[in-house]
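User: Fold this; tokens only.

Assistant: Input:
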Amino acid sequence: MVKEIRPNETKRAVAYELWLNAPNPMVTFFKTLNVTNLVRFSRKRKMKFNMLLDYCIGKAAVEIKEFYILPVGKKLMQYDTIAVNTIVKNKEGEVSSCDILYNPDLNIFNCDYLKYTAQVAEECENRDLVDSMVIGTSAILYTEIDGAIGMNSGIYNNPFIIWGRYRKKFFKYYLPISFQFHHTQMDGAHAGKFLENLQNVINNL
């Protein structure tokens, strides 16, 4: 469910006034994650690495209340669920977008991920969950990247995470990611807490 809320009745009132109409309200953080446990878990359970990372992103985000509020146009919207978006290569060789509702049960999330990404790949139609606050992701699997800065369109204000291939160093695996967020939605402290949550979730999966 989603509803419009009055900015002055939230803790984001000052941020709304400062950043909603700023020329560039998007902020990008870079962080290198230790994904050793995620790689081993993926191999042991025979689950897709990117699915597991999407699950961890959702699990880390639901603990931070700022993720449930998002500027959409000139409005401030409040959601009661969070979804994670993944980009799918469809049967025509192009890309389609697929939103997966976060579920704390990994097996359910995995089933939904496999079902809907396959559906989107076959039908070549985006799957958009308009009633959920969606965290965008993009996995650049053809190369290692140090980070990326997304576009500021003024239309898509959702938080967005980008990564490439993970790297092996000695017996551990590392993954640099970039996390972009709208300053109206959250401050740097909230973003930093989310990234710490994400690393903890990965470690304890």
